[in-house]
């Protein structure tokens, strides 16, 4: 396989990655919002697989708490074409149950409903290691 420019991370991406540090917190809720692309945060807004630049891009908001008790709201940009977060089984069941067909709490929107907020009420989620920007 030959290497193409599209498969190589941009210099800006590498610089941003170096400037970030690891943040660990317990994920308690998440949602997805469609927002106008940021100037540097959403390179995929003009990705080669799109027919035209995107007017809005998805941003996943992760809500949680650190071991020290600080509240966290992490905005995740540029994750297309997919986003992955590891959850404990109880947390995953609690988050997905309302959206899955046949569940007692069936919401009918499917597990990828945009703009829908999912709450983990009964589960005690395990900490989820994330990479995020350092606080100035």
Characterize the structure shown.
The protein is an alpha+beta fold and 136 residues long. It has one domain (22-133). Helices cover 12% and strands 29% of the residues. The chain has two helices and five strands; from the N terminus they run αβββαββ. It has helices spanning 11-19, 89-96; strands at residues 20-35, 57-65, 71-76, 118-119, 127-133. Strands 1, 2, 3, 4 and 5 form a five-stranded antiparallel β-sheet that branches. The N and C termini lie far apart (41 Å). Residues 98-136 are annotated as: Disordered.
Strand content: 25-35%
Q: Estimate the helix proportion, in percent.
A: 10-25%
Biggest pleated sheet: 5 strands, antiparallel
Strand count: 5
Q: Uncertain regions: pLDDT < 50 for 5+ in a row? A: 1-8, 103-136
Taking all Cα atoms into account, the compactness measure Rg is 17 Å
Helix and strand run: HEEEHEE
Shape: globular
- The separation of the N and C termini measures 41 Å
**How many structurally independent domains?**
1
Calculate the mean pLDDT score and round it: 63
Structural class: alpha+beta
Give the helix tally. Answer: 2
